[in-house]
């Protein structure tokens, strides 16, 4: 661990000191949530880039390059936030170079649609539930959003 204080590259909604005050489980869940978000942003950018390159879509691509740029900016901020959270974890539990669990380079593979479902946008995560805009990427086990009426901290 470095002796120089960690300073994020981008403005974040909380400081390293704020993050260190959080429970390890909250930090871990937020890292997982951010990695999932990054996977979806990167997949979205790949789909947008393919759509833009397709000559059949030439008339329907206005503004999509700007959307890709905005996604790339969000990706940078979220990667920076993961680094901030990892530094908080290191301060709380120490650093183990052999433990690559929180390594920002390593992340879960993105969910991709099988070729026969790419146009419909409906795929199945567990072969019983179709993934649509309403429930895409929702994992009730990983969901840290409080139910209505509950209090919670949103990072």
From TrEMBL:
Residues 111-155 are annotated as: Disordered. This is Uncharacterized protein. One of its GO terms (molecular function) is protein-macromolecule adaptor activity. InterPro entries: TMA17 (IPR038966). It comes from Filobasidium floriforme. Residues 122-135 have a biased composition (Polar residues). It comes from the Eukaryota. GO terms for biological process: proteasome regulatory particle assembly.
């Amino acid at each position: 661990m470095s002796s120089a204080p960690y300073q994020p590259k981008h403005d974040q909604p909380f400081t390293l000191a704020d993050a260190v005050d959080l429970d390890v489980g909250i930090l871990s869940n937020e890292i997982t949530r951010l990695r999932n978000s990054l996977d979806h942003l990167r997949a979205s950018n790949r789909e947008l880039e393919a759509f833009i390159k397709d000559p059949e879509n030439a008339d329907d691509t206005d503004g999509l390059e700007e959307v890709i740029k905005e996604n790339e900016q969000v990706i940078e901020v979220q990667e920076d936030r993961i680094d901030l959270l990892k530094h908080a974890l290191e301060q709380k539990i120490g650093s183990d170079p052999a433990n690559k669990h929180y390594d920002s380079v390593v992340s879960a593979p993105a969910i991709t649609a099988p070729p026969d479902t790419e146009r419909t946008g409906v795929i199945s995560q567990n072969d019983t539930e179709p993934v649509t805009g309403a429930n895409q990427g929702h994992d009730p086990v990983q969901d840290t959003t409080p139910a209505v009426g509950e209090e919670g901290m949103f990072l």
